[in-house]
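Look over both lines:
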Amino acid sequence: MMSKRMVPRTLLTLCLISSTLSSIIMVKDSSGGRPTLPDSCLRTCAGSTGAGLRRGWAVRHRSTMEVTVDMSECGFVDTPVVTTSLAGNGFHDFLQGTSAPWEITKTGFRLVVENSGIFNPSLNRVHYYKWHVNWIAVGYVCEV
């Protein structure tokens, strides 16, 4: 059994370990250079377009679709580093471009997916197979 004195020390230790493990550092910024802003200004922001929601998706032509992702609520002051994946309940793994965001800005990006020879993507397939973009962005939220 733990004494009452041990509980606060244990909790403090766990909090310190937790805050240390969750630290974020930027070793290269989105331009490939050394960051000029302090790590204390970094934020991780993540989101999803929502399973099967057609909002934001558009057909570019017969074999290509794109989705525009809004990250404006993240509050980035410069272009963040963005990682994407396309999830769903089927056939999303046959598409190309699912982890290659385009035109990344501090407020959003586009993801363009293309037919890999199996079938053409469509708004109906977005809905039926519950396709959605999951994303994680790391960027700066303050300027020094």
